Amino acid sequence: MARLVLYAVGMPMHPDEVKRRIAAVIPSALIEVTDLTGTQDHYQAKIVSSAFAGKSIIEQHQLVYRALGDAMDGPIHALALETVAPVTLQQPNGDSR
């Protein structure tokens, strides 16, 4: 059963909930969320996902903001984002890894 949690303005959001919301929209992403102030309203998120491939930084960030939805209008006051598409490294012999 899906869990719906509504957040009021000023109500803190745990970092795990921030991560869960992002993962629900970008399931294959590697996500790291850090509470920058200890107040559960200022976060830094580092996200690596193939969903970002071919997208501009603005489009990547919009995808994350959509994932967080109403939390951006209430419990999350500030969000520093680092979004990256994974790269395939070419070895000198032409093999990729």
Written overview of the protein:
The protein has helices spanning 15-25, 57-68, and strands at residues 30-35, 42-48, 78-84. By secondary structure, the protein is of the alpha+beta class. It has a 3-stranded mixed sheet. α2 links the parallel β2 and β3 (78-84). α1 crosses α2. It is elongated. The termini are far apart. Mean pLDDT is 86; it is low at 1-9.
Give the SSE map.
Layout lengths: L14 H11 L4 E6 L6 E7 L8 H12 L9 E7 L13
Parallel strand pairs: 2-3
Antiparallel strand pairs: 1-2
Broad shape: elongated
Strand order of the largest sheet: 1-2-3
Radius of gyration: 15 Å
Given helix and strand content, the structural type is alpha+beta
Q: Secondary-structure element sequence?
A: HEEHE
Q: Identify the quaternary structure here.
A: single chain
Range of strand content:
15-25%
Overall helicity? 10-25%
Mean pLDDT, to the nearest integer, reads: 86
Q: Spans of 5+ residues with little confidence (pLDDT < 50)?
A: 1-9
Largest sheet geometry: 3 strands, mixed
Summary, kept brief:
The protein has helices at residues 15-25, 57-68, and strands at residues 30-35, 42-48, 78-84. With 97 residues, it is of the alpha+beta class. Strand 1 (30-35) and strand 2 form a beta hairpin.
Core attributes:
2 helices; 24% helix; three-stranded mixed sheet; alpha+beta; 3 strands; 97 residues; disordered N terminus
